[in-house]
């Protein structure tokens, strides 16, 4: 679920921090810049692990700050494919079941990856597994707040880098911008379409 990623960045330290140890100032600046941010094709950055190398620091004309190229390792949330995770159901929609693991809320289990046959209850706004038994079908509701075990089967990254304005698309750009704002930069995709996966309460022995 968590991995160490080797990264390189140039860190700017303002003059009023020169009295501090360089490593401390750099660590603080890196965490300010990266902590709780999604890096494209890398994952959700959690915290700095260590600094592996500091190159020479430079002060450029017109800027009293120092600029140091830093090689470091960062703790990143990036579950590998087929990893089994446990989270809580945050909400349900026609798009599937949305799951949270506490510090990360953008996990989705699409309808085709639920235990089948499944249906969406419009009145309750939850997904239901129509569990077949010898006595007939029983509706097992995926209620909000329930703990759920799922397998990571895919992931989607969206490049959230700002783009320049396009004069040709100016009249219709507002709608596209609104859609982009709502889109998550990193979305792990889960599946519960196997025995043992799904709500924990489904598989506990009574």
UniProtKB/TrEMBL annotation:
**Sequence ranges assigned to domain RNA polymerase III subunit Rpc25 in this UniProt record:** 83-203
Q: Which organism is it from?
A: Chaetops frenatus
Q: Which UniProt keywords apply?
A: Antiviral defense, DNA-directed RNA polymerase, Immunity, Innate immunity, Nucleus, Transcription
| Name listed for the protein in its UniProt record | DNA-directed RNA polymerase subunit
Q: Where in the cell is it found?
A: Nucleus
Polar residues compositional bias, start-end:
163-175
GO biological process terms, semicolon-separated: defense response to virus; innate immune response; transcription initiation at RNA polymerase III promoter
Pfam families per UniProt = RNA_pol_Rbc25 (PF08292), SHS2_Rpb7-N (PF03876)
């Amino acid at each position: 679920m968590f991995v160490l990623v080797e990264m390189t960045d140039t860190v700017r330290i303002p003059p009023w921090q020169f009295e501090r140890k360089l490593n401390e100032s750099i660590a603080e600046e890196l965490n300010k810049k990266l902590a709780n941010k999604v890096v494209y094709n890398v994952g959700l950055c959690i915290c700095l692990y260590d600094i592996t190398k500091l190159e020479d620091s430079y002060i450029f004309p017109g800027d009293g700050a120092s600029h140091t190229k830093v090689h470091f390792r960062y703790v990143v949330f990036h579950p590998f494919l087929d990893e089994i995770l446990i989270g809580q159901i945050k909400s349900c929609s026609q798009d599937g079941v949305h799951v949270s693991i506490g510090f990360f809320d953008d996990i989705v289990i699409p309808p085709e990856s639920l235990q089948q046959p499944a249906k969406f209850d419009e009145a309750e706004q939850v997904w239901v597994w129509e569990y077949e038994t010898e006595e007939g079908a029983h509706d097992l509701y995926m209620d909000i707040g329930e703990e759920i075990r799922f397998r990571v089967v895919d992931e989607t990254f969206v490049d959230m880098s700002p783009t320049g304005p396009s004069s040709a698309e100016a009249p219709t750009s507002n709608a596209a911008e609104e859609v982009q704002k709502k889109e998550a930069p990193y979305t792990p995709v889960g599946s519960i379409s196997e025995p043992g996966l799904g709500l924990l309460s489904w598989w506990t022995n009574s």
